[in-house]
Amino acid sequence: LLRSAEVLETMTASTDPTHPPGQALLQLARLRQRQGNTEEARLLLQRVTEEFPQSAAAMEASQALAAP
Q: Which residues of 29-64 are buried (b: 16+ CB within 10 A; e: fewer)?
């Protein structure tokens, strides 16, 4: 899982359109959630909605933030 997190963190800075950074942030948030780090996951989801508001990742992040 550590290697997965490293790869996703690298991808968040990518400008490669085949690996959008918003999607990488969303995946990293999901990983952090599975690891039990709900606060970091919530911050990452908020970051997705703020930095990539028009993306599909932002829509998913918004739904995740709204879930109980």
A: bbbbbeeeeeeebbebbebbbeebeebebbebbeeb
Q: Which of 53, 41, 38, 54 is nearest to 8 (CA)?
A: 41
The tens place of each residue's pLDDT in the chain, 68 residues long, gives 557 777 777 766 666 666 788 999 999 999 999 999 999 999 999 999 999 999 999 999 999 999 97
Q: How far is CA 59 from the centre of its chain?
A: 11
Q: Rounded CA gap, 64 and 68, in Å?
A: 8
